[in-house]
């Protein structure tokens, strides 16, 4: 690799780093929902893997159903986080597309998600 190629590569890395930083900040704006119990419990999460909202159908709010309710909240929360992570990954991949060679097994997202 010549000196010129190296300078070009360094420029691309700086550009990529700056785009990754911007996208990382946008991840808080990405929202995804997860539900359980046929929609009786809905949870909303963002691309930074934080829960934003929990919605519960009123009929689940009785003492006899507390165990079921707790399980449904966990299931819905996990689904929302999974969906948010998938959306965040798509967002990160879209900015790196065409900037770096596709190296099998190399997860660019993990390099910037600390």
Automatic annotation (TrEMBL):
<dbReference type="InterPro" id="IPR004401">
    <property type="entry name" value="YbaB/EbfC"/>
</dbReference>
<protein>
    <recommendedName>
        <fullName>Nucleoid-associated protein AFM12_15290</fullName>
    </recommendedName>
</protein>
<feature type="coiled-coil region">
    <location>
        <begin position="6"/>
        <end position="33"/>
    </location>
</feature>
<comment type="subunit">
    <text>Homodimer.</text>
</comment>
<comment type="function">
    <text>Binds to DNA and alters its conformation. May be involved in regulation of gene expression, nucleoid organization and DNA protection.</text>
</comment>
<keyword id="KW-0238">DNA-binding</keyword>
<dbReference type="GO" id="GO:0003677">
    <property type="term" value="F:DNA binding"/>
</dbReference>
<keyword id="KW-0175">Coiled coil</keyword>
<comment type="similarity">
    <text>Belongs to the YbaB/EbfC family.</text>
</comment>
<dbReference type="GO" id="GO:0005829">
    <property type="term" value="C:cytosol"/>
</dbReference>
<dbReference type="Pfam" id="PF02575">
    <property type="entry name" value="YbaB_DNA_bd"/>
</dbReference>
<dbReference type="GO" id="GO:0043590">
    <property type="term" value="C:bacterial nucleoid"/>
</dbReference>
<keyword id="KW-0963">Cytoplasm</keyword>
<dbReference type="InterPro" id="IPR036894">
    <property type="entry name" value="YbaB-like_sf"/>
</dbReference>
């Amino acid at each position: 690799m010549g000196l010129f190629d190296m300078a070009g590569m360094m420029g691309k890395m700086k550009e990529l780093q700056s785009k990754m930083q911007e996208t990382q900040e946008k991840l808080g704006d990405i929202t995804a929902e997860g539900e359980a119990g046929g929609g009786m419990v809905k949870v909303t999460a963002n691309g930074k893997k934080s829960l934003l909202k929990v919605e519960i159908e009123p009929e689940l709010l009785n003492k006899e159903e507390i165990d079921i309710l707790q399980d449904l909240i966990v299931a819905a929360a996990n689904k929302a986080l999974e969906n948010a992570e998938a959306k965040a990954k798509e967002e990160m991949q879209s900015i790196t597309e065409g900037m770096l060679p596709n190296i099998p097994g190399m997860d660019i997202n993990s390099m910037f998600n600390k």
